[in-house]
Amino acid sequence: MQFATRLAPLESNVFADMDRIKAQAIASGLETIDLSLGSSDLPAEGHILKAIAQSLDDPTTHQYLLFHGTLPFREAAAKWYTDKYGIPVDPHTEVMPLVGSQEGTAHLPLAVLNPGDFALLMDPGYPSHMGGVYLASGQIYPMELREENGFLPQFNEIPDAVLAQSRMMVLSYPHNPTSAVAPLSFFEEAVAFCRERDIVLVHDFPYADIVFDDVAPPSVLQADREKTCSIEFFTLSKSYNMGGFRIGYAIGNAELIRALRQVKAAVDFNQYRGILNGAIAAFTGSQDGVKATVETYRRRRDAFVGALNRIGWQVPLPTATMYIWAKLPEPWQNDSVGFCTKLVEQTGVAASPGAGFGKAGEGYVRFALVHEPEILEAAVAKIAEFLGR
Fold first, then answer.
1. Domains of the chain
2. pLDDT tens, 210-225?
3. Angle 107-364-324 from CA coordinates, rounded to 5°
């Protein structure tokens, strides 16, 4: 049986390989501590769950949900955004529901790229950003992120020949996996760069609220207030612990929203209306749960980094996200996959190899703060034992 050539780049997935190794460790009876996936272990708030539960008894929510039926959600998302960032948003033309922000990063390349066009992606970066480009038969130019530059791409390093074929740039700050935060001035530079070259600027923004120490990460639309070339993806998975409900939205340039809507119309309708009702409750209800989630991750960050530092692995405190991006010690500095493989095989502690996020991620490992402090500290004790061997 023959398959499309666009599937070839999707055959290799380091995270699928790590999942297989984790499964083998579990099958062998080894007690595992999984720090490899950024899937929140925290529950959604009660008022969110109540809104979803009440929807179940309403038979009108059991039908297909087309775009026009999502207006209450789009209005709530637009108001939430305007209240937070001070930018007016038209819920009719500038907002669109998504099955999590990953749907947006997967589908938008189909609306923007022709075969052979370039997408400018962050390296290291979130792997799904690459998948959407490959499915659109596009090419990827990796914008290398280096620690000495604050893990910000240097636009002047992109070759002119690549720029001539570039149609979209994808940014994401606070950044997964490095946890870096970009200032508004950087986004202003990015908007000017993309506008001058007629490049669509995409900002994946799942960690808008997961920030510490009074950090306030900007929205890309604060640098593109007229929404000339930008679109932003937000998810309720992190701020509201609704990962399993798969709910997010796109906001930005009306033409991009319309194009994304055309792709979505060919693929599916929308989620169950009750999930959107839960999202509306999240946007309009008390935000104390968001604050509690942030405080939980702050405590975990402090405990995990403190424990690493005590065993001699010096890692700076991140100012955002639910991850620790740690430079590997010798002799593992050029073998993040080997480090993570041996670590889970020998100790049961699972982490994500930096190489899985791109070539520039080699030499690092990402830990997800998805357990309570005492479990995180137990994981570090196992790591110390492993390194001692």
1. 5-43+289-388 (3.90.1150.10), 46-284 (3.40.640.10)
2. 999 888 999 999 999 9
3. 75
